[in-house]
Amino acid sequence: MDKNIIDFINVCKVNDILLLSPQTEEDIQESIENTTNITMINISQDSNISSIIKRMFSIKDYGLLIIDQVEFSINDILSKILESTDVPLIIINKNNYSKDIPKNNLMADKISENSYLLYTFDSLHNVLNNEKYQQASIGKYLDNIYYRHYKASSNNSIFYPLSLLFNSDKIGGIKNLPLNIKGYKELKKEKDFNIGYYLRTNNIKDCEDVYLHYLFNAKDNGYSPNPYFNKDDYIDSNPDLKKIDYDPFIHYLLYGKKENRIINDNITGTFQNEISNNIIKGWIAEIGNDKPVEAYISIDDKNYPIKADIYREDLKRNNINNGKHGFEFKVPNEYNDDENHDIKLIGSNNRTVSQITYNYIKGTKIAPSGTIKGAFQTNIKDTLIRGWIAEIGNNNPINANIEIEGELFPIKANIYREDLKRNNINNGVHGFEFNIPSEFVDGKKHKIQLIGPNNSIISKITHTFINYDYENNIERFFSHSMISPEIVLPPDEPKKKVLSLMDNIAKYLINQVEEEPLVSIIMPTYNREEMITNAISSVLEQSYKNFELIVIDDASSDNTLNAIKEFDDCRIKIINNESNLGVSKSRNIGLKEAKGKYIMYLDSDNDWEKDYLKATVGSFIRLPDADAVYSGQYVYEKDKEKIKYIRYGTINKGLLSNRNYVDLNCYSHTRKIYEELGGFDENLERFVDWDLILKYMTFGRTYSIPFIMSNYYFNIAENSISNNTKLLSQSDIVIDKQHERMSEKICDYEILRGISVIIPSYESLNDLKECLNSLFNLNAKWLEIIVVDNNSSEDVIRYLIKLKNESRIKLILNQENLGFTYAVNQAIEIAQINNDIVLLNNDAVITKYALHFLQKAAYELDDCGITVPQQVLPAKTKTINVHVPFAHKDIECDVNLSAHHKNVINVPLFHNGEYTELSFAPFFCVYIKRDTYNMSIGLDAELGRHFRSDMIFCNYIRTVLNQKIYHVSDARVYHKLQKATETLKEKSLSEHNLLYVQNRWSKEEQEKYGFKQAKWDLDE
């Protein structure tokens, strides 16, 4: 094999290579450093091209094809390959091949005298957007090729000052002309402007001058000059720049770099305290970005590059992205003297993140006193913000400020937090709590910053605070609790009314109990001699008397067992494990021993109010179809005097699959469902209770019961699971198991009426393909698919026409973007007249039985006109917390039950979460009964060209037709983040504003389609 090809593979570290060569595998292994990702097909001179092609296509997902010194016609094999596959990059090693290159419509970059890298501009563009290539060193090599091609095919302007003059209105006018001429010159010589990155990430394929293009377009369109420079972060980190009227990156090039301005305040990290064998350990990360940060160690101002990509369990446990941000660095021998050396950890933003003083003889000191650290907690409850701020090395609480929309609110961080003490943040007395002022509780997104005593930004978050008025309306509380299941104390008067009613509901349930079936209470314990007495006493003092308390002592080494035996009550059954088996096995042992009709759980560090058992049994009596029930809980601080908050939320299956808010100490289930589905997963170390609750919720029926009689003592035991920082979060495993359960859940409903799925579409080819494939996979005869394309680009049209010609879809091609509503009405005109209608975004992915569940609900629920599924947003979608404040944004979540839309209504007192009535649902995916549609006046394209029509239609069917909208929790549809809106903005800003901002028709369009602009439709 050509040495230059071998060097290319070794240097560029290409993964997933398919190699066609007459050489043997042994020959290849001698030359290439790592062959684990190379698949080889040995080709002799008489090999048959067809058989080679067939063998190639049996191997999937290779990123680079190498054809090495074959004797047959390269063009023959290339033409077949290019017809049948999308191999992104090809290397040819063959004498005199260069004369044949144009025949394949491929571009060639010469690697050596007889070796060529072949590609198309589009394939190279796609490859460079692949994360695998971005992270490999090949990415920079390909970026250079990409730009060379771009530069060769463009006609660069040589009159850049005149261009700036003639177009000065785009960049701040004549007054900014001198500054922008300087900026232009800096861009041309500045390495921080990554041209290949700029062109491909912003899909720029045609412009006269890339530097002018940046000046004219980057500021308004949010284009980034490189992967590390975030303009919003730059402005946020430097508040004095908020009023500049030119591009922030230009400011950074001209002034910010010299002034050592902070680029990205999201980059954080630290050195570890101790150094052994001259190796410095630490971590550095960009919060919210899993990619390893490229940083450097500076020793006495001499820089040493590092890459922080080592997995650390403590980082993962503390939610530092995926945990792969650790580093190790051996201090060079030249610093091994008795002098002090300043060592700094420098981020990709050129900011010092951490600092130590290193002395080979005397040892090392961590970050000098005076370093201000802190953070907001991300789980915001109602209007209460928590966090911490401290001066490292100083135990005294410090004064700081919360800044909201430019207004400062002083705080003092003087609350003790055990987690801070545990993580060596001084003495731990550095926590704070802050209630958001009422003027910001307005349903709008607000930027909140934690400002240190040196006026630096320590932490920042954005959040939407919504005011729910519970006054005289318990249903509003139930609605709100579905997306925010915690009540901050002390309560205001409206919340006191809600809590009073919950106490009355408990009395109602207690009165339902006439007979007392046997209840089994399972209590695992380990080394709890000081607190188990309280837990057992709370059981024995219950007003409900027919129970068995099964205590499983998990081989305690203290006096726990004797403390249990001091109770002389025949209802207590003691099981003594010979060895420590863990809480899951202990609970399962208890379940096998249990004889009761209902099973409840109490941990040995918590307790119940005296009527808990009776109210819970009353719930089962009141709800004979219930397989499980849960109620509310008081959550206490470490001492048992102060209630921290109340935990209760009406059941929301989507949220419960994202984050557990049901504690096992206030959860109970029937013996029957345990016998059907089994108990706890003993392979899990964490989240075993959540896993069981999800299992019973998915295959059984779980009700939320609004009363509060359980007491949970937060972090009271040093060996409690909630305090065990040595255990790695296993939430991903639980979520994966829940995905499997949902896919296993079969809908036994038979489709009785045909369904026309209507997809208004614009661009987003990959999303559209995934959407349509999810429908094709249903292989359903009752399904009709109609796509209305709003003037997409050629590759989208070509794909859709192919599907139409194959009779897989009906297709309408518009020559202009007419918007969502008009497109829907066009499709309904050609849909099967008796079919029900499903409106579906082109970036939605239907799951297997979603349409079955939606139709089943539509025809089984009284007065139902519309059904909607769970709208599941992918993990890390920014808008998750806008809709569901309590959700973990790093885990996928349903957002159709939305705080933003305030759309949950008429919630039952006892709810099982299967169907929830809504006032409105966005038409991302919506099932409309044909009879309902026929009775309506259709979607209003005149007054709601692109949006608003869904709200009009929902309110029409509710108020005029007196029909209902239901959320169906078993129907799940994924909603990806499409880029069509931004694509239109890049194509035509005026068209974008007319469609997405003004939501109107132009005067010419009004005349063409017979529309009028409403008198009330005035500009704000």
How would a crystallographer describe the biggest sheet? 10 strands, mixed
State the name of the first-level CATH class of the largest domain. Alpha Beta
Taking Cα atoms only, what radius of gyration do you get, to the nearest Å?
A: 32 Å
Overall pLDDT level: 80
Provide structural commentary.
The chain has 1020 residues and is of the alpha+beta class. It is built from 35 helices and 43 strands. It has six domains: 149 residues, Rossmann fold; 100 residues, no CATH class; 99 residues, Immunoglobulin-like; 93 residues, Immunoglobulin-like (Sandwich), CATH 2.60.40; 252 residues, Spore Coat Polysaccharide Biosynthesis Protein SpsA, Chain A (Alpha-Beta Complex); 234 residues, Spore Coat Polysaccharide Biosynthesis Protein SpsA, Chain A (Alpha-Beta Complex). Helices cover 32% and strands 25% of the residues.
Give a brief description.
With about 1000 residues, the protein is α+β, with helices and mostly antiparallel strands. About 30% of the residues lie in helices and about 25% in strands.
Question: Which keywords apply here?
Answer:
alpha+beta, ten-stranded mixed β-sheet, 35 helices, 25% strand, 6 domains, 1020 residues, Rossmann fold, Immunoglobulin-like
Topology at a glance:
Layout: H1 3-12, E1 17-21, H2 25-31, E2 38-42, H3 49-57, E3 64-68, H4 74-84, E4 89-93, E5 107-112, E6 115-119, H5 121-128, H6 131-135, H7 138-153, H8 160-166, H9 177-189, H10 195-201, H11 210-221, H12 231-237, H13 248-256, E7 267-271, E8 279-286, E9 293-299, E10 302-308, E11 310-311, H14 313-317, E12 324-330, E13 341-346, E14 352-359, E15 363-365, E16 372-376, E17 384-391, E18 399-404, E19 407-412, E20 415-416, H15 418-422, E21 429-435, E22 445-451, E23 457-464, H16 474-481, E24 486-488, H17 493-510, E25 519-525, H18 532-540, E26 547-553, H19 560-565, E27 572-576, H20 583-593, E28 598-601, E29 607-608, H21 612-622, E30 628-636, E31 643-647, H22 653-656, E32 667-670, H23 671-677, H24 688-699, E33 702-713, H25 731-744, E34 755-761, H26 765-776, E35 783-790, H27 794-805, E36 810-814, H28 820-830, E37 836-840, E38 844-846, H29 850-860, E39 864-873, H30 880-883, E40 893-894, E41 915-918, E42 925-928, H31 930-935, H32 949-959, E43 964-975, H33 980-987, H34 989-997, H35 1003-1009
Parallel strand pairs: 1-2, 1-3, 3-4, 25-26, 25-28, 26-27, 30-33, 34-35, 34-37, 35-36, 39-43
Antiparallel strand pairs: 4-6, 5-6, 7-8, 8-12, 9-10, 9-13, 11-12, 13-14, 14-15, 16-17, 17-21, 18-19, 18-22, 20-21, 22-23, 24-31, 28-32, 29-33, 30-31, 30-32, 37-42, 38-43, 39-40, 39-42, 41-43
Helix pairs in contact: 5-7, 7-10, 8-9, 9-13, 17-21, 24-25, 33-34
